[in-house]
Specification:
Elements (H helix, E strand, L loop, with lengths): L4 H4 L3 H7 L3 E6 L4 H4 L10 E12 L5 E16 L6 E15 L2 H7 L6 E4 L6 H12 L10 H18 L1 H14 L1
Parallel strand pairs: 4-5
Antiparallel strand pairs: 1-2, 2-3, 3-4
The structure holds zinc ion.
The site of zinc ion (ZN) has 8 residues, from loops.
C-alpha cells in the first residue's frame, strides 16, 4: 500500500518540471470502481501505467504543466454474447493540461482538444488512471469465439468421427471376404 502513496499525492508542477517518466503499477483491487466491473480475478489483475510530465508554452506564452498518461489492465469482463467471463485488455493514452483553477478549466475547456485538470501538489494520479480506464471499458465486451461455440463445434467433430469410424471395419470386412 505504501508504494502507491506517491501516485496518490503527486506534485503536478514539480513532476512536469522534472520531466522524467514515471512507471508504476497498482493492484486492480486498489481501484474499487473499476474492480466492480470485473467478474473475477480482481486480486490477480494489475493496472500498469506510465506518465510523462512536461512544461509547454501556452497561448499567452506562459509555461504550463502537461502530463501524458497511459494505462492498461487485463481484466475479466462479462461477454455480452454468452455471459461468461472474457479476458479483456482495457487501455488508454491521453494528454492533460493543468490549469490553476476550476474556473480556468471551465473557461478554456471548449477551445482545446486536450483534457484540462486543476493543478495540485497532491494530485491523485491513480484516481485519474481509474477514471480513464473506466471510460475506456468496451461497451459490449465479447469473446472472439465464445466457449459455448467451441463446445458445440467440438461436439460436431466428435459426431463426425463417430460416423466415420465404421468405415475401416467395413473395408477390413471386404478384404476378408475373398479369403473365405
Ligand atoms: Zn462469449
Amino acid at each position: 500500500m505504501a508504494t502507491s502513496l506517491p501516485y496518490r499525492k503527486l506534485s503536478v508542477g514539480a513532476f512536469a518540471l522534472q520531466a522524467s517518466p514515471l512507471q508504476g503499477q497498482a493492484p486492480l483491487a486498489q481501484m474499487p470502481r473499476l474492480a466492480d466491473e470485473a467478474v473475477h480475478g480482481v486480486d490477480d489483475s494489475v493496472v500498469q501505467f506510465q506518465a510523462q510530465g512536461s512544461m509547454r508554452n501556452g497561448a499567452g506564452g506562459q509555461a504550463q504543466p502537461w502530463i501524458q498518461l497511459q494505462g492498461s489492465v487485463d481484466m475479466a469482463l462479462v461477454c455480452q454474447r454468452c455471459l461468461e467471463p472474457v479476458s479483456t485488455l482495457v487501455q488508454f493514452d491521453r494528454e492533460f493540461r493543468f490549469v490553476e483553477s476550476e474556473d480556468v478549466a471551465l473557461a478554456e475547456d471548449e477551445d482545446c482538444d486536450e483534457d484540462l485538470l486543476v493543478c495540485s501538489t497532491q494530485f491523485d494520479l491513480l484516481e485519474l488512471v481509474e477514471d480513464e480506464l473506466l471510460m475506456a471499458l468496451p461497451v459490449s465486451p465479447k469473446h472472439e469465439t465464445c466457449p459455448g461455440e467451441l463446445k458445440l463445434s467440438a461436439a460436431d467433430s466428435d459426431f463426425e468421427v463417430a460416423n466415420e469410424r465404421p468405415k475401416p471395419f467395413a473395408k477390413l470386412a471386404q478384404l476378408k471376404i475373398p479369403k473365405s
